[in-house]
Amino acid sequence: MRGVSLAKLKEALAQHWVEEELRGEVGDGIPDAGESVERVKEENETVEIVHMKLEVEREKTALEKEKMQMEQRKL
After folding, report:
1. Domain coordinates of the chain in residue numbers?
2. Phi and psi dihedrals of 54, rounded to 5?
3. What is the SS3 string spanning the chain?
4. Taking the model in full, what pTM does it have?
5. CA torsion sign, 20 to 23 to 27 to 29?
6. pLDDT in tens, 12-71
7. How far is Cα 28 from Cα 43, in angstroms, rounded to an integer?
8. Cβ(63)–Cβ(19) under 8 Å?
9. How far, CA to CA in Å, does 33 sit from each of 42, 43, 45, 73?
10. Residues 9, 1: contact at Cβ < 8 Å?
């Protein structure tokens, strides 16, 4: 897996997980409207949390890369 950054791999895995979760819900039939609204809200919150975590990981990776570049310049 040369050339693939850890951040991109994590992002791809998280996106795959989200897609799998959403696909799993599609085949369950139509729930009660109140249940459906609550489930959608929970899923949206989960997706938002995953996206926020991915963004934090991207920022950490960018900072680490920048630090490494600075160290290389010093050397």
Report:
1. 6-74
2. -65, -40
3. CCCCCHHHHHHHHHHHHHHHHHHHHHCCCCCCHHHHHHHHHHHHHHHHHHHHHHHHHHHHHHHHHHHHHHHHHHC
4. 0.44
5. positive
6. 777 777 777 777 654 455 556 566 667 777 777 777 788 888 888 889 899 999 999 999
7. 15
8. no
9. 14, 15, 18, 60
10. yes
